[in-house]
Amino acid sequence: MKSKIEISIILPTYNVEDYIDEAVMSVLNSLRKTTLKCEFIIIDDSSTDRTWKKLQRFCGDAFIVKHHHVGLGALRNIGIGIARGEYILFLDGDDTFDDNILVTLESYIKRADVDLIVFNWNSISTTGDIRFRFNCGYAPSTAGFSCWNKCYRRNLIRSITFPEDSLFEDVGFFIIAAEKAESVIYISDYLYNHRHRLEGISRRATSISDRMGVLNGFLDLYQIQDIDKTNYDQLVVKTIISHLIKGLNDSTHINTDDCRGIFYATAFLQEFNLIGIYNFWGRRKISKNILWNVIVQLMRFPKLYITLAKIKVKYK
């Protein structure tokens, strides 16, 4: 009888030819240090550079499959569907694991019945140098939205999906998982290296409509009835406003889709009672500083108000 797979590693890829070798080798190096039985799943989204060609030399080390431009959220969902491991780890195609990630997780998985493990991570440059170290802490509100510095029990996330056809799709995934988890462990080790590069999704010039993909993940969170969302209100509002400001900063003009994005954000904040102006030390609502920043940005586009007035949309 085959022994059960203990960890599934899911690596989605798209046009990361400069980094994919390092990403894959970081997994293989960590596998050599552990006694855990693991499977390595790589899902490429029909890369148009040399990523797919480079992956072919790792066919003996991983299960590699190609899909046709379905997006990062869909790739991760496909990976979860394929995975057979008791636990799941995510790795992005331009990031790397620390060599000790699996051997460190092994000591916790084998000695404790744990649903979710959170660990610290490094921000690295395009050349791999450490820029800074991020201490997550235990609380879901401080551990960050990203899905990749966590290890999930597969049964925990079986019913959770990443929103598809949108950017910034993972913002609600971890929080929902953390709220469902009966046991969570925080590890102070830095086990993940997240690459900071200007062409990455979170840092490249991105439209308002694209950035409002964050609403899809937050919507999943706020539609769950048995979660106390007040623990996340401030973080959610700050994230939405931050994306609005970045989208406005990156814009030379505002199109109809961008206007709809602003409407969606406003409707979301209103629907879940997140909008309002409190004093500077208010804990939950939009502060005067944040609101003023948005107003200053909107003043760059006087025709925006006319366009907004012509659009009637309802957030669904």
How are the SSEs ordered, and which strands pair?
Layout: E1 7-13, H1 20-31, E2 38-44, H2 51-55, E3 63-66, H3 72-82, E4 87-90, E5 96-97, H4 101-109, E6 116-124, E7 130-134, E8 150-153, H5 154-157, H6 173-180, E9 184-195, H7 208-211, H8 214-222, H9 233-249, H10 256-271, H11 288-298, H12 304-310
Parallel strand pairs: 1-2, 1-4, 2-3, 6-9
Antiparallel strand pairs: 4-8, 5-9, 6-7, 6-8
Summed up, the helix count is: 12
Mean pLDDT over all positions: 82
Approximately how much helix is present in the residues? 25-40%
What's the number of structural domains?
2
DSSP strand content: 15-25%
Distance between the termini: 49 Å
What is the string of helix and strand elements?
Answer: EHEHEHEEHEEEHHEHHHHHH
User: How many strand segments?
Assistant: 9
Largest sheet: 9 strands, mixed
From the helix content, strand content and strand pairing, which structural class follows?
A: alpha/beta
| Low-confidence sequence ranges | 200-205, 277-287, 308-316
CATH superfamily of the largest domain: Spore Coat Polysaccharide Biosynthesis Protein SpsA, Chain A
Name of the CATH class of the largest domain? Alpha Beta
What is the CATH-assigned architecture of the largest domain?
Answer: Alpha-Beta Complex
Gyration radius, in Å: 20 Å
Described by the principal axes of the CA atoms, the overall outline is globular
CATH topology of the largest domain: Spore Coat Polysaccharide Biosynthesis Protein SpsA, Chain A
